[in-house]
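Posted in: Protein Modeling Q&A

I'm a second-year student putting together a small comparison for a lab meeting, and my supervisor asked me to include a predicted structure for Cellobiose phosphorylase. I've never done this before, so apologies if this is the wrong subforum. The sequence is pasted below exactly as I got it from our records. If anyone can share the structure token output, I'd also love a short note on what stands out.
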Amino acid sequence: MKFGYFDDARQEYVITSPTTPLPWINYLGCENFFSLISNTCGGYSFYKDAKLLRLTRYRYNNIPTDTNGRYYYIKDGDTIWNPGWQPVQTELDSYSCRHGLGYSVFTSTKNELTAELTAFVPLNNNCEINRLTLKNTSNQAKDISLFSYIEFCLWNAVDDMTNFQRNFSIGEVEIEGSAIYHKTEYRERRNHYAVYAVNTAIDGYDTDRDSFLGAYRGVNRPIVVEQGKSTNSKASGWAPIGSHNINVTLQPGEEMSYVFVLGYLEIDEDNKWEAPGVINKAPAKEMLAKFETNEQVETALDELKEHWTTLLSKYTVETNDDKLTRMVNTWNQYQCMVTFNMSRSASYYESGTGRGMGFRDSCQDLLGFVHLIPDRARERIIDIASTQFEDGSAYHQYQPLTKKGNMDIGSGFNDDPLWLIAGVSAYIKETGDFGILEESVPFDNDESKAQPLMEHLRRSFNFTRTNLGPHGLPLIGRADWNDCLNLNCFSKTPGESFQTCSNFESGKAESVFIAGMFVRYGKEYAELCKRTGNQAEAELVLAAVDKMYDAVLENGWDGEWFLRAYDAFSEKIGSKECEDGQIFIEPQGFCVLAGIGVKEGLAEKALNSVKERLDTKYGVMLLQPAYKDYHLNLGEVSSYPPGYKENAGIFCHNNPWVSIAETVIGRGDRAFEIYKKTCPAYVEDISEIHRTEPYVYSQMVAGADAPRHGEAKNSWLTGTAAWTFVNVSQYIIGIRPEFDGLVVDPCIPSDMPGFKATRIFRDATYNITVENPNGAQKGVAKLVVDGQEMSGNIIPFVDGKKEYNVTITLG
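Accepted answer (user: helix_wrangler)
Welcome! Here is the predicted structure, written out as tokens:
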């Protein structure tokens, strides 16, 4: 069943019931200030870093789910309700939530009173705007009491949740007019504060949570709202909040709008105080003055919408499939931008307090957004490479605020270095900016050890090349892409059981998956070497790639599919010889998309095995059979129940690898079939099963062994977004950048008659028409560029040319 619908004209998803299977959220903000907002107004806000600069509190394990948020309580006589339904949960006469690109609009009615709440983060400002409009649609006057509510976080979200012996004594606020200033710790160690204000005179306020809620009450029934009058409480220690009380009389047909602003301000140390103990409010007043009127708010909202329209115009398609068109043009690219901003830090599944920016994650995310914001992609590459060590390995994560590597996680994930080559290569193909390779980039953020970026790539490649196991395959380290496949964490003495190792780095486990990466991205590194005049290095690299290719065929092929790995004792993982976990998805996809086994006829066998043994109606599972028991020599992968996460779940992130692999061997029908199974727009009709948002990808879906087969988890922040966009845009639709120009090489289902596409590439517009008169799946029979027929399938880039008109005939 559905809980809403797509409004393609407005590029919105319209939720028509507040009781969605899970909270369905949106992200507000695209620069430094961000908010998460659910379809019932839940969520939280932060500046740059969801751990260190959290403005508002959110309780992940709360019951009922999805608390706190930005709440507006409307008291109309004896009826109390909220525009977003939560937290009071009064039954509404009508409700809708429109999640758009960077904004959300809630429209609800109760007892002939309409409330419309518009929430967004304006460009170039560190604040969230909430405009609430109340309209009396009855034939009688209404006396309304309105109460706003947010709960402030004491900045560091981890400390806020744990250090109660201190935190119950430090809450501090100031109130001036209609503005509430959260200045906790400002006097000691902060140069920033938060403000929560409204653009009208108020009839009261509260800044102490317990005074607002009342003893032993929750946000679902605050005593202040029940009594219809604020207490004018001032937080002193304990839990600071922001609440305004506005009393209004609405005549029949009359409406009133109020603009609430939650903002973040930073102050120079020399200008912190207006007077002893009184914060400098000048920056806040300057911010609030920008959003005092409806006209100002509407202008800011229009600017935001224009920003997204311009951004997403860089790759658009027209097809005969509405679901495909909306995902490519809007939602997939939108999610790619969110993952650029968030990596894996802050969602409804990632608390924002642990993982920061991932080395592997951010390199892969870059593949999906580099065409949208190449300048910021360049900055991200420098940030990522700066966390690399001199031996080519890297911190697995770094904090977005400090740009420093995460010491708690450290390094040892041996796929990380090769992802840097993937990201840099994608950036240069998109932009033609080989100059980035000359940029001086530090190792481990130590400027005294800075080297050109090209040297970072060389060390990335050589880290893998010089860390091989007994089968000539790359050592896996702590893990490769699958963080739960921990094959070096245990030692074994003949005749004894597995026991925990004291030093995982002594292990010799090998990864066939990293071998596939080495072949694919080794070729790309060799091409960069050639194009920067280092032919000798390129030849050495290609020789190592060829050697790895042969090692995979000799030691990584199991007869019908590629092995997954060898553990620390050279025992096969992902083999027909295993009782469980006989076949894994990762090497089947990545080895084939790297070209391994294609000419030998092994690629088709491997992909046929995927369809036979791993496929389900909801997507391709990660492995089969599921591990029934925990295996010490495998690590975390077997700790999950069968069908969940890495133990035979459907990991949506790697389904695109198999789809891309199918395009490599020309099977467009199968490639598109795989694409559709995990694409949210195609599973909207089964939202009661899928549960997560029908407009964005999730990390995983429960596999066939799970009791809830088809149920998704961990939506939004996943490499699925980037890899799926790479798959559908560059391999199915088949428009992809290369060093010398734009390749058009579609691999589409045989019943697709063709399509049109517009692609902005290096500041030129490519108007592309693809015709498929004979139901072909792959193969360019004719390429015409600006009226001239050309051979091959690449459109050479001509510097200075601004428009290309291209017609492709498949056959």
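A couple of things worth pointing out for your meeting: The domain at 4-309 is CATH 2.70.98.40 (Beta-galactosidase; Chain A, domain 5). Confidence is low (pLDDT under 50) at residues 491-505.
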